[in-house]
Amino acid sequence: MGTDSATFDPDAPLARSITTLDAPLIWPVTHHAKNHSPRPGGVIGADGHFVDLSHCRYTSTKRWTLPCVPDPDVPVTDMPGTWLYGGVLDPAFGHCIIESLSRLWVLDHLDTPPDGIVFLPAVHRSFYQRPKRYLAATQAVFDAFPGLPTRRACPTQPARPERLILGAQGMGGGDFSPGAPEFRAFIKRHFLPDVAPAGSENLYVSRARLSVMGNLMFEDRIEALFAANGYEIFHPEAHSLTEQVARYRAARRIVTVEGSALHVIAYALAPDQPVEIGIIPRRTTGNTASFVAQLHWQSAARVHVIDTLTRLYHPGRIYGEQSNVRALHDLRRMADELAALGLIENATPIANPTEDEIATALAALPKQMVRMEL
After folding, report:
1. CB 265 within 8 A of CB 254
2. pLDDT (average), residues 333-359
3. What confidence tens digit (pLDDT) does each residue in 302-314 have?
4. Per residue in 135-155, pLDDT tens?
5. pLDDT tens across 240-287, in order?
6. Pick from 180, 26, 23: nearest CA to 104
């Protein structure tokens, strides 16, 4: 796939995209308080032209970067040695584990490993101009890949590597969710390969303890439903990636709310692991379909979507990906669907909240929420 193709082809190999540039410029994306992306940034060749292969994307049609030109008045730092271009380094876990890993597949196609990996810093207000924060916040993800180059750089000012190896982006969101063939092979080969299965065969992966706006209402009731059906209730944020992977590799039934835990599950599962996965949506965007596609291409899981959404509640300004909404499900219908799919045996120990209970739950949120019927 060329970097400017309209769609991403998960069957198309990327190995022929690998190229090495002498003395290019890494031009970081600049911060702007009113908007995160897309913004000019990427790689500029020694000839002064922007390198299209360095574009970073959320999907094939949604760019994270735009072409840029060098500013001769801005000082440049030299980076001796050979570096792999890693694309965007995003401290947000869900983006880090897909976009910030999306070019590591190139390492499996090099005769000599590079001296390090160099990234563009994602534009986050509390991280910008603090490269050590980017590196520290993402260290656990990169530690899950033994044998990577130990040096990572995230320059927030223009930098000039002595040599730079580039390969096409092999993973992302939307139509990028299946991953390229080389990316899928890299993940199965290198993502915590020595972690053995350990834990329950039935796992409910919960978001109930996350202090985020984007979540389900009354997930404690859903937890109780699964506990009554013999599931272990698992909160991944309380465990290391190693512990998470061990649990997912041991499971035969996993149900979870749509979210970044599904990226880890897709990476962790053995290519032939027989597992049933249920996904409960928390928004009405295409994110759930992206996770289904990722699991289809990166695992042998049988995936079921339990879509019993009835309402969304959102602040006055709703983000495009609905990352700040609270989702209300018909819990009784959810339980019946779970039972029909064979994911639980007993659907009775759950009740829908009353309107008064819903109002009380909304009043406890830090922002006034607007009701959206579905």
Report:
1. yes
2. 97
3. 999 999 999 999 9
4. 999 999 999 999 999 999 999
5. 999 999 999 999 999 999 999 999 999 999 999 999 999 999 998 889
6. 180
Question: Strand runs (DSSP E) across 30-148, as ranges?
Answer: 39-40, 42-44, 57-59, 62-63, 65-66, 77-89, 116-121
Least Cα distance to 157 among 53, 73, 54, 65 occurs for 73
pLDDT, position 4 = 47
CA distance 20 to 239: 39
* Structure tokens belonging to residue 8: 């991403």
Phi/psi of residue 20, nearest 5 degrees: -120, 130
Amino acid in the structure at residue 361: A
What order do you get walking across the sheet with 326-329 strand by strand?
215-216, 326-329, 309-314, 370-373
Q: Which residue has the tokens 């699964």?
A: 226
Among residues 26, 40, 280, 327, the alpha carbon closest in space to that of 164 is found at 26
Q: 57 and 172 in contact (C-beta within 8 Å)?
A: yes
Strand ranges, E, within 217-330: 232-234, 253-257, 276-280, 302-305, 309-314, 326-329
3-state SS assignment for residue 208? coil
- Give the angle 105-107-108 at the CA atoms, nearest 5°: 75
Domain boundary assignment for the chain: 15-190, 202-373
Task: Report whether pLDDT(1) > 60.
Answer: no
Cα distance from N-terminal residue to C-terminal residue, the chain: 37
Fold of the domain spanning 202-373: Rossmann fold (3.40.50)
